[in-house]
Fold these 3 entries.
Entry 1:
Amino acid sequence: GASKRGGEFEITRIGDHDVASPPDSVAASESLERLSIALDRLAALDPSLAQLVDLHFFCGFSFVEIASRRGVSERTVQRDWKKARMLLRQVADPPERSLVDVALSDGNAM
């Protein structure tokens, strides 16, 4: 669930720095929970892709760092990222789909 992915925190961008802070609304917590549900469904289909989303989106690792960690090329990680986004969208319920689209749209961590 969301708690294992930092559900008690909201990631906020300030300039080029990410800052973890308590969520300022119930909506932020619910959004993270919905994204977490979709990610759990992805993990049931492909644990490796779910781990990629965890590493990049929740932990903030770059594609280069993930590629090095996995012993694959950065291009492979980029292809897997696209596949993860596509599968997340497929397994998500309609309210989660828009969240997946927004949260994972540009390949950058939150």
Entry 2:
Amino acid sequence: EQKKLVGAHISSQIDALAKKDWKLAYSYASPGFRSGVEIDQFTFIIGTQYGMLVDNEGYEFGACTIASEKLVQEIAVTSNAEVTNLTYILSVEKEALGVDSATASQPKLEA
């Protein structure tokens, strides 16, 4: 059940990014993230470091685990024939799920 909620939350954010609906995408970030990062900064970070989410050609969910009261979700995003593995960290504050961070590992070329 938790994995479905995490998947739906991340999918909603990625879909908003693909539509360049920055305000909606920002709304899926955790309150802790939003308190330290304004929407303009968020838009800049996405544009400079996470273009693969905006231009994604699909994504697949991997393992979902819980560590230190945080939810950790692995995702493989395909963009421009490259697969980028992202590790999302989510938290629950006041019974609301939110994205704290997404970290990319090195992209791998598809065979």
Entry 3:
Amino acid sequence: LIHTLSLHDALPIYIMITSKQRSYLRTFGNKLQPLFQLGKAGVEQNFLKQVEEALEAREIIKIKVLNNSGITAREASDIICESIGAEAVQSIGSKCVLYKRSIKKPIIELP
């Protein structure tokens, strides 16, 4: 999801990426090592802040969800994306890949 502001009401508007763009982003995600591990503490505000900062710097990250977290990688991905306005690229097994276009320095050019 790309977060932009509406000129009329200043409420956030989310633009979904297409399946072609998601497929393109998967090629980046396959090469990544997990940057974060989500454990028994779950998805907390501090964790979300760190993920958001990492996405601003890198645009695409991989997260490993540990068994003791009590949620699946897909559930974690959904919670994180909804909380910070990111886009779920892929969830396989215990790992999920997230994307959010950088506001300051966009790196990845989507097709």
